Amino acid sequence: MALKNGREYQQSIADLALEAHIMGRKEAALTDHGLVRPSLAAVAVTYDGAHAEDPATRALFRVNSPLCGEEVNRFTHLHQSTDDLVKKVTMQRYCGHTTGCCFQRCVGMDAANAVYSTTFDCDADCGTDYHARFKAYWAGIQQNDLVVDGAMTDPKGDRGRRPRDQKDPDLFLRVVERKRDGVVVCGAKLHQTGMLNAHEMLVMPTMGMREGEEDWAICFAVPTNTAGIRYIYGRQASDTRKLESRSLDVGNPLYGGQEVMTVFDHVFVPRERIFLDGELPYSGRLVERFAAYHRQSYGGCKVGVGDVLIGAAALIARMNGVARASHIKDKLVEMIHLNETLFACGIACSTLGHATPAGNYEIDMLLANVCKLNVTRFPYELARLATDVAGGLLGTMPSAHDLEDPVAGPYIKKYLASAEGTDPVDRIKVLRLIENLVAGAGAVAYLIESMHGAGPPMAQRIMIGRQGGLEEKIRRVKAMLNIP
After folding, report:
1. Are 111 and 201 within one domain?
2. pLDDT for the residue numbered 1
3. Which of 4, 181, 253, 418 has the fewest CB atoms nearer than 10 Å to its CB?
4. In the chain, how many domains are there?
């Protein structure tokens, strides 16, 4: 099948006829909903990139897949080299600075690569047939050019208790019934980025499971319109601005993100779509590999959004007439420095990647964790610097409704005038975009997700402690100093 473009993708999502609970109402026709439409447009960019006029851009999005023997969108690719890993991060940066938001497709790609190698290992050790099942499943994803949303994070309930010790065992998604041809699952997955814009979901355990927790060690895939799945749309700061007739106050007039609570109410999963079921050692391995791939991703996507924030900060400095001030220049340089440091981490962990026994490529896990730990900090500093450069008007601007008012409008244009040649309305547009990223709906993906997506800071610190080679460093010092 030919690679879809953005329009064809959006129609394919409309054909799924998904429904969701949004702000107290059950909604259908989601692709036309004002809160959903901007996020759908962001995903469409990942399809249109494969049809870009620029050959270099097309080369980022198109790749030949040895799995299905066809040219596929890189967002469905199983990495075959370090060059693939580098192009992945570069592609993600392109999508980030094109949309200025989360484009919602990275989790599925990262989940697929983790599941691919983990099922191979499980089959080799346990005699299962999960790897063949997953290969057949993923070949279909590639051939039909589908969006897959990876689903890992469980509600977890009392964080001090294991899954089997929870008062409500459904607080970690689990198998509640086993049938000859599959299993029935109950539970929920939280913080599901772009779930209503996906064709399929790939569900993974949220943590390494222990003896007695076999029912929670489940990995599977189902279509997003499967019976028994319910969706509850998440609120974002200033999100209802998207429903207003004036787009000026939205900040990002074209694109947006999406977070969804996904509930599994006795959902049947066919046997051929199960890729792990009770093999405890591989639940932790899958979580670790997925997390590392996704921490690499943040060295691309967050950097792309950072490009937008830096550009907006530089533009508003010009509009405010302060672009030549030395302290402004210094702040912009610092923003660039921090952003490129994140990109360098993403590229570094990709360049030092290696082949897995399954044949796909895995990043350097230590550097991937270093990348993500920096991501938990640097975007917040970029946001602080952008807020500083923009000025206090960032939080006190009149609304677009007042701008169009025959009485208030002329006053706004008169008193929001700035550097010569700057249209006050254009100045408001730039300030609204900055506001969107540092305090509005865009901050969900750029700041909150930077902190907690792919695990909070302590998760990276734990992995860095494990993978940092501290004993080897001590051994080298002892050798240098001739200490036994």
Report:
1. yes
2. 63
3. 181
4. 2
